[in-house]
Each structure stands twice: as structure tokens, then as C-alpha cells.
């Protein structure tokens, strides 16, 4: 397994529409370790499409508890279980995931009990362990060292993560508004995967969604990062490559690759990946 990141879901926000991409999920493959980063809708299919056997799932890292980043966590774990999972899975993330899991198990309790009794499967509850991330300490996953930094994503606690091993480093910004501290956190990384929105496309998106008010626009502006600012972070950090994900918007034909490229051109001239579902980025 060569080192790479697969972007499984690349749109920002929880809604999907005909022709749209999926909400956020990623697969990091580094030093023989596979780590799922975020579990938005579509993560299970995305992993399988990358050739991963779900019974090999063992490490999951969640940035924050907005549904577009963890709605499919329970279904992923359950589907891995029916696909043959019998070894422990560790889920790292902010407070609240263990409670989500308790309620997910309760909602599926009939099915899970039947499969244990009728199919001889191990108890799903006992296979999954939760570790609350402490950004002052970081953590390790096998050979990987992981650092976490709280981002600016009000009103939710969200972490950016930096994974390092064998001289390679990858940073996921998580959801965040523009924060200059991200440049220091991502300094010298081989790859920065930063969330991004295209400012000039937001009014049209607002009109298409149709059921929000000014608060939705205010949320975008106060909790997310313009593509040009993400490019500025990448340049200040001196990263070797920049990828944009969590794209807002992701499915407006009036705003395609050319518009995104144009929005970063003044600030970033290095290797660039405009995320799409299934994109593999070598490390
Ligand atoms: Zn999000
Ligand atoms: Zn969010």
C-alpha cells in the first residue's frame, strides 16, 4: 500500500442533490496504517470503492459533530461488522461520539441482537472504543503521531489534525473560518487538505437551498474559509501541495474548476488538487 490520501466525499454541508458529490470523508494511508478521517454520508461506499475490505477497519478520526462529518459513523461500523469485522476499532474525536454510538446501538438493537443470536456474530458494542481528543496532548495511531488543534468553527468544537510518520506529514483543516494559526500548524507539510468556499457563488447557493435565512449566510462567513484564504494559508505554511475539499458550492455548473483555480491563483502556484470524490493524492 503506497502512501496516499483518498478524498471520498468532498462537498461542504449535509445535503445531497441529483448529481452532487458526497459530504466529507477521507482515507489516509500512511506507513501501512489506514485511518478514516470523518464519516459523512457515503463513507462506507467510498472506502469499498478504494479497494478497502471493511473488516480491516481499525482507526477512525472525527473532526467535529456536524452531521456532514459523522452521520454515517454508525452505519459504517455496523456495515464493517456484517462484512466480517472482529477486531477492535478506535474512534478518536471530540466529546459526544460515545453518546452518539450508544443511541445508534439502541436504534438498531433488534437487528444487532438477531445477528448475534442467529448468525453467531461477536457483540458489536464491544468492538468499538472511543477516545476523546485532547488537543494539548495529541495521540498516536501505530507509527503515526497525531496533533490536534481547535479550529474556529462556532458554535461547534472542531479539530484540525496533523498526521506524521517517517518524515511525511498530512494536515486536514477540518471545518474552520480563516485562521492564520493554521499556517504554523501546517508548516512544511507534504499535503494540506483545506476546506474552502467560493465567495461569489454563495448568493446563488442560498437561493437554490431556499429554506434558510440570513443566518445560513452568516454561518458560512463566520465558520468557513474562502478559497483565496486557504491558498494564503498554504503559501504561508510552505506546504508542498494544497488540496481543497468541503467545497461550497460543489454542484453549481456555473462555478467549475476554472473559477476555483482563478480564486487561488494570486496566492498559490504550487501543486494543487481541487477535490472530487474518489480522488487519490500520492504522498
Ligand atoms: Zn462541514
Ligand atoms: Zn462543520
TrEMBL record:
The Metallo-beta-lactamase domain, residue ranges: 22-213
Q: Which organism is it from?
A: Gemmobacter lutimaris
* Gene Ontology terms for molecular function: 3'-tRNA processing endoribonuclease activity
Cross-referenced SMART domains, in alphabetical order? Answer: Lactamase_B (SM00849)
Q: Where are the transmembrane segments?
A: none
The superkingdom listed in its UniProt entry is Bacteria
Record key words, sorted: Hydrolase
Say if the entry is tagged with keyword Hydrolase: yes
Q: What is this protein called?
A: MBL fold metallo-hydrolase
Q: Does the keyword Hydrolase apply?
A: yes
Amino acid at each position: 500500500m503506497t502512501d496516499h490520501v483518498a478524498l471520498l466525499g468532498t462537498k461542504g454541508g449535509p445535503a445531497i442533490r441529483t448529481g452532487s458529490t458526497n459530504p466529507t470523508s477521507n482515507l489516509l494511508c500512511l506507513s501501512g496504517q489506514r485511518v478514516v478521517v470523518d464519516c459523512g454520508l457515503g463513507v462506507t461506499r467510498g472506502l469499498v470503492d478504494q479497494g478497502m475490505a471493511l473488516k480491516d477497519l481499525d482507526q477512525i478520526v472525527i473532526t467535529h459533530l456536524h452531521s456532514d462529518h459523522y452521520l454515517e459513523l454508525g452505519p459504517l461500523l455496523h456495515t464493517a461488522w456484517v462484512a466480517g469485522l472482529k477486531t477492535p476499532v478506535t474512534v478518536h474525536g471530540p466529546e459526544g461520539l460515545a453518546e452518539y454510538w450508544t443511541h445508534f446501538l439502541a436504534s438498531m438493537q433488534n437487528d444487532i441482537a438477531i445477528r448475534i443470536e442467529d448468525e453467531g456474530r461477536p457483540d458489536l458494542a464491544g468492538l468499538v472504543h472511543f477516545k476523546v481528543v485532547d488537543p494539548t496532548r495529541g495521540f498516536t495511531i501505530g507509527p503515526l503521531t497525531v496533533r490536534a488543534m481547535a479550529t474556529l468553527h462556532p458554535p461547534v468544537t472542531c479539530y484540525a489534525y496533523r498526521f506524521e510518520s517517517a518524515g511525511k506529514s498530512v494536515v486536514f483543516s477540518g471545518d474552520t473560518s480563516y485562521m492564520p494559526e493554521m499556517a504554523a500548524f501546517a508548516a512544511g507539510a507534504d499535503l494540506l487538505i483545506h476546506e474552502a468556499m467560493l465567495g461569489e457563488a454563495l448568493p446563488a447557493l442560498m437561493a437554490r437551498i431556499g429554506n434558510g435565512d440570513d443566518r445560513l449566510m452568516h454561518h458560512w462567513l463566520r465558520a468557513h474559509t474562502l478559497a483565496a484564504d486557504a491558498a494564503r494559508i498554504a503559501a504561508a505554511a510552505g506546504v508542498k501541495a494544497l488540496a481543497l475539499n468541503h467545497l461550497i458550492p460543489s454542484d453549481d455548473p456555473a462555478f467549475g474548476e476554472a473559477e476555483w483555480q482563478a480564486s487561488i491563483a494570486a496566492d498559490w502556484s504550487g501543486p494543487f488538487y481541487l477535490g472530487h470524490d474518489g480522488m487519490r493524492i500520492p504522498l
